[in-house]
Write a structure and sequence with these properties.
The protein is mainly alpha-helical and about 160 residues long. Helix content is about 45%, strand content about 10%. β1 and β2 form a beta hairpin.
């Protein structure tokens, strides 16, 4: 099971601060989660890898993109995001809420009413994730064509 799916708490909490080592210390470049005093997504021990894995998730990208325009209820998100299961939507929303990227507001009414919206931190992802969505839409035909070409080529050295 991936580290993300099992996570039930925020990536970084007040009780567990993640601090970069100062640039001048030898530890900053020798086996720690930082390189030259800066977190590095290329270092397996750096929490930024967990964050990158979380925000690079397909469902995260689509949820954040949908919440850009308005606050939405769970059912609205499920209808608007093709192919997402109730389980995946619930899990992704919980993770985003724990990471303070999405706010969940519960209204004290019957039946219960719950709305989701982006936090200011979540809004900082709109430009980079929006660019990723645009790239995927603009280049889908190129990618499909290359995939089709690869499939048509007989594998070298294979015998039937």
């Amino acid at each position: 099971m991936s580290q993300l799916k099992a996570r039930k708490k925020p990536l970084v909490t007040v009780e567990e601060p993640v601090k970069a080592a100062p640039r001048s210390t030898p530890a900053a470049t020798n086996g720690t989660a930082v390189s030259h005093g800066v977190p590095s997504v290329f270092n397996e021990r750096c929490p930024s890898q967990i964050i990158l894995e979380r925000i690079a998730d397909k469902w995260t990208v689509l949820i954040i993109h949908k919440l850009d325009k308005k606050t939405m209820r769970f059912g609205e998100l499920k209808r608007e995001i093709g192919g997402v299961s109730q389980k995946m939507l619930t899990q992704t929303l919980r993770n985003l809420e724990h990471d303070k990227l999405v706010e969940r507001k519960v209204y004290p009414v019957v039946p219960p009413k719950v709305e989701y919206s982006l936090t200011p931190l979540g809004r900082t992802l709109l430009n980079p994730l929006g660019a990723l969505c645009r790239w995927a839409q603009e280049h889908i035909e190129d990618v499909i064509e290359m995939d089709n070409r690869r499939r048509r080529k007989p594998a070298a050295g294979r015998t039937g």
